[in-house]
């Protein structure tokens, strides 16, 4: 290898994940198991982070402390996504404090009951749609005007349930279908402003809500069958989700938009 090639390779490898690095990454639901891994991965890659939580301030404070250990700035804020006024207020506060939000990761999701569609209570269906789908719309409505001048990236956590229907999981899949449609629309409409949108669609990940539902919605037989029917014969990890999110959010994916990465170990094949 010539000296020129060696120098060129060093220059390529030296490009940081967030080269402009002005402002912060905003992680919605950053206090959860998957959200925490995403926050830490972004911090390791050189981003300052603001994360939101719904009610568990103690868990959010733990994530903030961990980010500080990586030498990055961090803060946590309570947020009710279904409340458009609250979303706008929180976003304005972050912008006032940090100047810019360059990355938005939506890792939030409602705690749901696992039921067949015909057994879902209409009140719960509305509650979940308000928090998840309408909540995401509230977020993009508040942030698109802010992000247009300098561009930015949206990354959402979706589900492979849109590819292979998971029994009794409509309250997770249906809201994410609408969010995925919004992401596609934003990619098409806002690309001219340097705004990118990409999605990570998850199978069973051994973290977050999945762990809370073990013994409730997922018994050993269900989990064993899911592992057996996957190509890689195991569950995914929060770390693996965070790696995928980092790619989409970072400079490495600067020419990637409107895409979905399926992260399910080959379960949906």
SSE topology:
Elements lengths: L2 H11 L10 E5 L4 H12 L4 E5 L3 H13 L4 E5 L5 H15 L2 E6 L15 H10 L1 H15 L4 E8 L10 H21 L4 E8 L6 H5 L6 H9 L9 H12 L9 E5 L6
Helix pairs in contact: 2-3, 2-10, 4-6, 5-6
Walk me through what this model shows.
The protein is 46% helix and 16% strand. The longest helix is centred in the C-terminal third of the chain and has 21 residues, at 170-190. Strands 3-2-1-4-5-6-7 form a 7-stranded parallel beta sheet, sandwiched between helices. It has a single domain (22-262), classed as Rossmann fold (3-Layer(aba) Sandwich), CATH 3.40.50. Strand 1 (24-28), helix 2 and strand 2 (49-53) form a beta-alpha-beta unit. With 269 residues, it is an alpha/beta fold. It has 10 helices and 7 strands. The protein is globular and about 50 Å long. Helix 2 runs parallel beside helix 3, helix 4 (84-98) runs parallel beside helix 6 and helix 5 (122-131) packs parallel to helix 6 (133-147). The N and C termini lie far apart (41 Å).
Summarize the entry for a quick read.
This protein has ten helices and seven strands.
List keywords for this structure.
about 270 residues, alpha/beta, Rossmann fold, seven-stranded parallel beta sheet, 10 helices, about 45% helix
CATH architecture: 3-Layer(aba) Sandwich
- CATH class value: Alpha Beta
CATH fold-level topology: Rossmann fold
Q: CATH homologous superfamily, by name?
A: NAD(P)-binding Rossmann-like Domain
Structural class: alpha/beta
**Beta-strand segment tally:** 7
* Count of the domains: 1
What does the main sheet amount to?
Answer: 7 strands, parallel
Strand line-up across the major sheet: 3-2-1-4-5-6-7
